Amino acid sequence: MSIANKLVLRFKGEIIEAYLLTNEETTIGRKANNTIEIDNLSVSSLHARVLQIGNKTILEDMGSTNGTLVNKKTVHKHILQDGDIIGIGKHSLVFVDANTKNISNEEVEDDMDKTMIISAKDREVMLSSRQKTGDSMPLAAVQIVMGSEAGKKFDLNASITSIGKGDICKIKVKGLTVGKQAAIITRRPNGYHIAYLEGFSKVKVNGKTVGSEPMTLKGGAIIELGDMKMEFFLKKY
């Protein structure tokens, strides 16, 4: 069993709670439907999120009003390293890469028990609220129009869809220059977005190269990576 990474929430030097990063997406914000709720006016409703993609843990600011810091520097997207201190409003979150520590899951869970301040009932309400929010998110799909799997369709129902030649990728693309996790398509309440992660081959949308900053996808967009092309479209109900 792999050991889960975690974020330790602190305020004025005091530990408030520790959160195991067991899901592919962890949201941080002022609203109760976030995974990590920080009830402070300096924190945006949906301030930031943490994505776990393969062996990478990525922090992404979600257009917050006051910004997100890592080690006192403003970031828009950042691959977290063990010990990084995330600044959100007056609070901080310390990233702990458990795989670099000589600890077990049981020790991590015990540490969480010592710092837990939110009741199980409150957590159920938070999770329920988040699920309801997710139900209103748009649904889309992509269809391969060029490549070895031309004609194949992939529904984009998950919050993250990985593209590349790695085993964890839902959409596989062959090629020596294609990264194992070349790109991701993320699903948010305001639509779908694509971002480049790694590899020599760059991702293009309608002929425009995509960088590490997410690009919004619109119906009919043509996504290119290596020798593959696919069309993005919104699903009809």
Question: Overview of this structure, please?
Answer:
The protein has helices at residues 105-115, 120-135; strands spanning 6-11, 14-20, 25-29, 36-37, 48-53, 56-61, 68-70, 73-75, 77-79, 85-88, 91-96, 140-146, 153-155, 160-164, 171-172, 183-188, 191-196, 203-205, 208-210, 215-216, 222-225, 228-234. It has 237 residues and is mainly beta. The strands form 4 sheets. Strands 2-1-11-10-7-8 form a 6-stranded antiparallel beta sheet. A 6-stranded antiparallel beta sheet has the order 13-12-22-21-18-19, with no helix packed on it. Strands 4-3-5-6-9 form a 5-stranded mixed beta sheet, with no helix packed on it. The chain is elongated. The termini are far apart. The relative contact order is 0.13. The model is unreliable at 102-135 (pLDDT under 50).
Task: List descriptors.
six-stranded antiparallel β-sheet, single chain, 237 residues, 22 strands, mainly beta, 11% helix, 2 helices
Question: Which series of helices and strands comes N to C?
Answer: EEEEEEEEEEEHHEEEEEEEEEEE
Q: Tally of extended strands?
A: 22
Shape descriptor: elongated
Quick one: biggest sheet?
Answer: 6 strands, antiparallel
> What average pLDDT do the residues reach?
81
User: What's the gyration radius in Å?
Assistant: 19 Å
Please state the structural category: mainly beta
Side-by-side strand order of the widest sheet: 2-1-11-10-7-8
Spans of at least 5 consecutive residues with low confidence = 102-135
What is the helix content? 10-25%
Count helical runs.
2
* Distance from first to last alpha carbon: 40 Å
